[in-house]
């Protein structure tokens, strides 16, 4: 069993069956799925000592990297977060209550809001990004630079080939796409993807 992982064992259990399954495809998708779950768990464990959950971290990280003002509209935030409007509102309310973000009317359009990091929010966001980056580096650095670059390129190609619903690009009807979805291939910052 040396060199095998849980996916190899799962595929071995399928190999006896008469089902017409593409086990190579299954191996790739299952490994991506398992890594995503483990990265999400790693993110939660890393952020908990800072008093953040991965969803709150996503908001702070997007604002931190958004420029010197650390300020965006909710719709611009959501292009990266890919969550419902109600979900974003709840996250912002929690962060605002803790003094980490502020919400104000946009000066050029009083019907729109702008969300900005406070000084405390920027400090916490920077600490969280550093902690998260160190934790994920400890995992990703287990493969060499060449392999990492190749893997990143392959994952980029795969990500660009699906829309935000997970369907291969061009196969989902317009009605199946979330109303506020970003362009296909736009990354989130969470979970497996939680990153600054």
TrEMBL record:
Protein name, as recorded: HTH marR-type domain-containing protein
PANTHER family, per database record: TRANSCRIPTIONAL REGULATOR, MARR, TRANSCRIPTIONAL REPRESSOR OF EMRAB OPERON
Organism expressing this protein natively: Actinokineospora bangkokensis
Region of interest: Disordered: 159-196
UniProt signal peptide: none
HTH marR-type domain location: 25-160
UniProt keyword annotations, A-Z: DNA-binding, Transcription, Transcription regulation
GO molecular function: DNA binding; DNA-binding transcription factor activity
Annotated Polar residues bias: 183-196
Keyword Plastid carried by entry: no
PROSITE patterns: HTH_MARR_2
Listed transmembrane segments: none
